[in-house]
UniProtKB/TrEMBL annotation:
It is a multi-pass membrane protein. The chain crosses the membrane at residues 12-34, 66-87, 99-123, 129-148, 190-212, 261-283. NCBIfam families: 3a0107s02c (TIGR00974). Gene3D superfamilies: MetI-like. This is Phosphate transport system permease protein PstA. CDD domains: TM_PBP2 (cd06261). It comes from Vagococcus zengguangii. Belongs to the binding-protein-dependent transport system permease family. CysTW subfamily. One of its GO terms (biological process) is phosphate ion transmembrane transport. One of its GO terms (cellular component) is plasma membrane. Keywords: Cell membrane, Membrane, Transmembrane, Transmembrane helix, Transport.
């Protein structure tokens, strides 16, 4: 058998494996959407959940998911941006930076339940925050920070060294070159990683069961004072998210229409994660074209 036939067979095998993986993923997504979309309507998306009655919604859980996501990104994005800039532009090649990168790799592979237990011990118990949005956001920061940091570092390293030389040749300091030349050039990759990280956070459940809590207290959407316990903006209240709600509905079995609620919530979660991924690709390509044409 000559090399051309071997190459064709190997290529066909690789295409076949890829097709099987895509088919499995597409089948799972299609199954979830097929079961869940008929249960989605405006009342389902806006009404609060009901425990022992038929007809509950996911309004509060959906709000909690987005609010927790925003708080987490406010905390984690600046930290990961600073860490990525340091590792890419300033860190020297020595045992310390090797140790930091190894630590980042280890943290990025930790199971989310371990991060949740860590958050429970540190933020819920020791810090005294209790089951709250801030406890969940801090735990998710540890969960998402390694991936965001690595994404920022790789995006900055992808910028050609001549861009840095051009900035320095124009009389800019090293810091000004990084901020005004390198970071804007790497912005498409950084933004793509941030949005993909947001989708990962939005679908997280295990880490939040032990930190943000498993209940969704009634919220007064006319009260926007973050100091009031019933205010949606209060970061020290419990906040059951959409992913936690799906787990809770299936584990407790206290809802008469639990299967329908679970299917609808799962479809909403899948659609939201798909939207994050599509948005990341769209904005990444849009910004890349804008940067290259400028």
């Amino acid at each position: 058998m000559n090399s051309k036939k071997v190459d064709k067979i190997a290529t066909g095998v690789l295409y076949g494996i890829a097709a099987i993986i895509v088919l499995i993923l597409a089948s799972l997504i299609a199954y979830i959407l097929f079961r869940g979309i008929p249960n989605i309507n405006w009342e389902f998306l806006t009404q609060p959940a009901k425990t022992f009655e038929v007809g509950g919604g996911i309004g509060i859980q959906l709000f909690n998911s987005f609010y927790l996501l925003i708080i987490t990104m406010i905390i984690s994005v600046p930290i990961s941006l600073g860490a990525g800039i340091y590792l890419s532009e300033y860190a020297k090649k020595n045992w310390l930076t090797d140790f930091i990168r190894t630590a980042i790799e280890i943290l990025s592979s930790l199971p989310s339940v371990v991060v949740g237990l860590f958050g429970f011990l540190v933020f819920v118990v020791q810090a005294g925050f209790g089951f709250s949005i801030i406890s969940g956001a801090l735990a998710l920061t540890f969960f998402n920070l390694p991936l965001l940091t690595r994404n920022v570092e790789e995006s900055l390293k992808a910028v050609h060294y001549t861009q840095r030389e051009a900035g320095l040749a124009l009389g800019l300091s090293r810091w000004e070159t990084v901020i005004k030349v390198v970071v804007p050039e790497a912005l498409p990759g950084i933004l793509t990683g941030v949005i993909l990280g947001a989708g990962r956070i939005f679908g997280e459940a295990a880490a939040l069961i032990y930190t943000a809590g498993q209940s969704a207290p009634a919220l007064d959407f006319t009260d926007w004072n973050p100091m009031n316990i019933s205010s949606p903006l209060n970061i020290f209240r419990q906040a059951e998210t959409l992913a936690v709600h799906i787990w809770k509905v299936n584990s407790e079995g206290t809802m008469p229409d639990g299967p329908q609620v679970s299917a609808g919530a799962s479809a909403v979660l899948i659609l939201a994660v798909l939207l994050f991924n599509i948005l990341a690709r769209f904005l990444g390509k849009r910004l890349h074209k804008k940067m290259t044409s400028a």
